[in-house]
Amino acid sequence: MTAPAGPTANLHLVAAITEGIEKFAGLPTLQHEYDVIESRGNQTYIYGWAIDPDRQWTRADLYLNGELVASCEPHEREDVTSALPQFKFGRMSGFNFGSEDADVGNGHTDRADLVFYDGDQPIATVFTPVRTDLETFVPLPPEHLMKRVIGSGDPTQFKRFALYCFGQYLAAANRHREFSGIKKMLDWGCGCGRVTAHYLRIGNGPEVYGCDIDGEDIAWCKANLADGVFETTSPFVPLPYEAGSFDLVVSLSVLTHLSKDQQADWLREIDRVLAHGGLFIGSVHGYSAALRGGEYLSERLKREPFFDDLSDEILDGIAPKGYYRATFQTPDYTRKAFGKVFDILEYIDRGVGIQDLVVARKKDARAGGVLGWMRGR
Known about the structure:
single chain, alpha/beta, 31% strand
């Protein structure tokens, strides 16, 4: 089975997703989740919850493709309070929007921005691409592969979160480089292609490569995402690519599972395969992820800038014993570690779900680059 027939989004998709609302640029992102994004009849519905850790938001506005279409006040979410008691403002965190626009996300990709207010003051924003045809837009892996990636076999959750992640990475990349100039990219740790599939749906987009240590995931990608180039790789450096191969390398929830030494090795290896001026965008577990994990983790991260001694058994039998773990690190540690190898362009709290996003660029070789850093160690 190969990717299903259907519309391929041209590069105007990049503009649709990446063009945010300028007057809200720079606002922080909240802890949030979407429960429903769908169209029924002549209505588009977007339901979910969002929490500001420091204060209660009092109103939220929904913008579709930059146009204000609906507003709502927070409503009670006892399920959020029960699941996340560490969040002071979790109880009144629900949002519920309905917009009369039957064409939203129906055969094309749109952008939904949610802006949150305290009184009349905008305090935070979140955004997601919107498609209501995800069932056919990208193929669905078998349930056990989905569970290995997200801990759940829910196909709606799997596809919706993948599209959301795609939007965050695409927007971050495009802020620092015209996406049309990215000719070749690598999804490092692509798993079963949940996000990779969306890069492949950009018509006239980059040549897309994906790699992972999970051979079953890669076999599925080869069979179902035929336009990509996929390869099973070792848990250890190097990657099987020539130096300077890629204009963009992305990784979602990979560094979040590596030891300090493995992170350092892989940052240098990613630098090696990046072309001049290339971007690396990767996610890490920072303060928000630690807080989501509970008081023990959040308090520990206040005392320790990095810890990697929490086991994660989800890849037992695939990764070497003890290799895969839950790793947490402070923004200061991350900036210093990345900064030894790359130029740091952005550090985005809660840049992709509960994980923070680091946007970095290959250093100019004339300034010494990674080789200069290694000589000075």
